[in-house]
Write a structure and sequence with these properties.
The chain has one domain (about 1-29). The chain contains one helix and no strands. It is mainly α and about 30 residues long. The chain is rod-shaped and about 40 Å long. The termini are far apart. About 80% of the residues lie in helices and about 0% in strands. InterPro entries: KdpF.
Amino acid sequence: MIVFSIIAAVLAVAALGYLVYALVKPERF
């Protein structure tokens, strides 16, 4: 299930990046 692990890692990084972006630019939300 290496593919599933890669997908999970990508989703985790994307979620963290989205949270950081929301904190840096709160006027967009």
